[in-house]
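May I ask for a sample protein chain and its fold as tokens?
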Amino acid sequence: MNTGALAPQELVRKAVIEVAQLPEKELLIVIEMVDALKKQRARPNRELAAEILARAKARAAEMSHLSHEEVVQRFIDATERIRADAIEKGTAIEGEWEQD
């Protein structure tokens, strides 16, 4: 079935027609699948968030021996590298930072 060429309204219409023709047992399966999709959509980034948090905690542990001043300086250095890269790529404008 090639549904890529159908407009969103046509997709909904086709889905409703197809689902309406299913036997009752299969309707229950469809309802369970839709419920699972809704739950998945409600928390789409939960795994990514957990991964980011784990990396942040690991990075914090790696830097725990540094003084506050050293951590701040590393942060400043990192932001300057990111900014220089953005300027080089044309996604930032030189001097824009100071105007904020």
Observations:
- The helical segments are 8-20, 24-42, 46-62, 68-89, 96-99.
- The CA atoms of residues 5 and 95 lie 47 Å apart.
- The radius of gyration is 25 Å.
